[in-house]
């Protein structure tokens, strides 16, 4: 039976996708996410979110301040990266004007279509430079607000796997700090994560979409030689 290491704890339905395909799973959280306190701006017309962590931290702060309705009513448009981020924003009552798979695609869209608008960018301490650098280059007004912090959570793992699932560049760095990829296939959630993995192995595969389920599907396909 092929074995897979997931560098984040999976949900039960995600585990089932592997186990039902006769793939053995080991999992751990390679990174830790900590929400940080921040001041919620009074007027947020256009909001940018590039991860579910950013959305969850934002609304945790909103709820702690008992300000859900006023904040939702003040946000006219949301721009985000990833299907799951979009779904989470909509579940919380916000309108998503544009969703892209990657931050680079979103930055290009904003420059092309919203050059005269102002944005609030809710992000983590380790975030891609794609959006802020592109907005600065094109003199687009924005305020960056750190709403969560990512910390590496290294763990020495004394075994080899047929595939390792990576979900962020930070996850790759965390794993590599204590382990080697060796002959394992590095299945990555997107091109940014894959770029980090390629520093350590040539055996890198990118999922079709930037979702956990797509990473799992790609792993199952490769391990079952489909």
UniProtKB/TrEMBL annotation:
Pfam families: HEM4 (PF02602)
All residue ranges annotated as the Tetrapyrrole biosynthesis uroporphyrinogen III synthase domain in the record: 25-216
Molecular function as annotated in GO: uroporphyrinogen-III synthase activity
Gene3D superfamilies: 3.40.50.10090
GO terms for cellular component: cytosol
Gene Ontology biological process terms, A to Z: uroporphyrinogen III biosynthetic process
InterPro entries, A to Z: 4pyrrol_syn_uPrphyn_synt_sf, 4pyrrol_synth_uPrphyn_synth, UROS/Hem4
Coiled-coil regions, chain positions: none
Name assigned to this protein: Uroporphyrinogen-III synthase
């Amino acid at each position: 039976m092929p074995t897979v290491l997931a560098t984040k704890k999976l949900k039960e339905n995600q585990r089932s996708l592997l186990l039902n395909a006769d793939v053995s799973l080991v999992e751990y959280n390679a990174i830790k996410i900590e929400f940080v306190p921040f001041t919620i701006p009074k007027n947020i017309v256009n909001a940018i979110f590039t991860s579910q962590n950013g959305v969850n931290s934002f609304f945790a702060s909103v709820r702690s301040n008992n300000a859900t309705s006023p904040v939702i009513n003040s946000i006219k448009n949301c721009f985000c990266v990833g299907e799951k981020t979009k779904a989470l924003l909509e579940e919380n009552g916000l309108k998503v004007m544009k969703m892209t798979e990657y931050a680079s695609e979103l930055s290009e869209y904003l420059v092309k279509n919203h050059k005269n608008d102002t944005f609030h960018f809710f992000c983590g301490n380790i975030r891609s430079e794609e959006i802020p650098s592109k907005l600065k280059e094109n003199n687009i007004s924005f305020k960056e607000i750190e709403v969560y912090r990512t910390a590496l959570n290294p763990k020495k793992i004394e075994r080899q796997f047929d595939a390792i699932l990576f979900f962020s560049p930070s996850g790759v760095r965390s794993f590599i700090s204590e382990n080697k990829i060796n002959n394992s296939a590095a299945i990555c959630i997107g091109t940014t994560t894959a770029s980090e993995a390629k520093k350590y192995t040539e055996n890198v595969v990118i999922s079709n979409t930037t979702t956990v389920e797509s990473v799992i599907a790609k792993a199952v396909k490769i391990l079952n030689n489909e």
